Amino acid sequence: MGKQRPPRPSAGSYYRPDRAQFDAFRPRQDRIGETQRRSNPRQTSPRRHPPNLPPVRSAVSKTKHERSTNPSTRIHSLRRLLTSQQDLPGTVRQEKERELAALLFDQRKALLTQNARKNLQRYHFVRFMERKKAERALKQLLRQRDSEQSHEQAYNTELKKLIHIAEVDINYTKYAPLGEKYISLFVQEGKKERQDRPKINKTEMATYDADQRNEILQLADQLSNVVRSASGAKPPMWYEVEKLMDEGEAKLEALRDGKLTTDKQLQKELAAIGGKQEAELRRAHGNQLQEMKPSWLDDDGIIDPADLDSDQDDDMSDGGFFER
Q1: Is residue 99 domain-resident?
Q2: Where is this region: Disordered (predicted)?
Q3: What is the pLDDT of residues 288-301, one digit of tens each?
């Protein structure tokens, strides 16, 4: 018989040619741990705790610097200070009230700027359509004036008046303040209502009187973001544009940019804020603000000659502080 092959080592044997043998000097517990990791590769070492990191801030919260420099936070702090502490000195109270009025003024100014941007986008299409309509009306009137030369004096006067109104209409659509609410010149009648205007039940409208119907129509126009003037009536800004037409185009451009209206409105807001805030504070703590000027300035700042310093006045001595 031929030679038989030596038996292959079993799977449970400690010898495997594809693995490195342990070193003789390695401790037995380390060899057991490595053997267990090889038999169960998913078994890992115990998890380590993550390092102590600060909590992640949400998008709403702000840092301490942002909270301290936020105008709204300062306004809230000043209001609490002025209403809670009634024993503040008069000078400190007036200083805090002035700071509060200035912060409220800046806040109102920022709000007006934000509303100006919104109104500019909201009424852009309405202004464009009304400008085109006013230009068509002006062209018709000019053709009537140039077509027939022989007219009565009354007719020519009325035609000239209508041409002037059409020119003011065009300038109103062009130079009305962009940041303010635009009041429409032309009343839409019949089926030419806006598509975004709320639907009104005609059966219910028939049961209302004239005042109630006008009130509901004004509310519908307000909800559709367009303000309509009454039939034949001109908005107040129309007369302002007519007045500035004689002063030149520079004034009209200043009116359009809000330089003539925003400053006046801000001054009124500042005066209203100061008076309202002072009334609220006095109603809260119930005492009057102390005067900043001394009592001897009550008589128009005239000093009594008896109160003037003199060489013989011993009471005005410095008490020997500078005497050596």
Answers
A1: yes
A2: 1-93, 277-324
A3: 444 344 444 444 44
Q: Has residue 146 been placed in a domain?
A: no
Give the CB-side neighbour count of residue 160, counting CA atoms within 13 A: 7
CA 125 to CA 129: how far, in whole Å?
A: 6
Phi, psi (deg, nearest 5) at residue 227: -105, 125
Distance CA 237, CA 252 (A): 12
pLDDT at 206 over 80: no
Residue 109: give the domain boundaries: 68-122+259-286
Burial 217-229 (b: 16+ CB within 10 A, else e): beebbeeebbebe
pLDDT in tens, 39-50: 665 555 556 666
Contacts of 187 (CB under 8 A, 6+ apart): 228, 229, 230, 231
Residue 253, pLDDT > 60, answer yes
Residue 211 inside a domain? The answer is: no
Element holding 284 (H helix, E strand): helix 262-285
* Tokens of residue 13, six digits: 């044997």
Residue keyed to tokens 């300035």: 297
- For residue 324, pLDDT over 50 is answered with no
Give the tens place of pLDDT for each residue, 85-141. 888 888 988 898 888 888 888 887 787 778 777 877 888 888 888 999 999 989 988
The count of structural domains within the chain is: 1
CA distance linking residue 127 with residue 226, whole number of Å: 11
Report pTM. 0.45
Whether residue 38 lies inside any domain: the answer is no
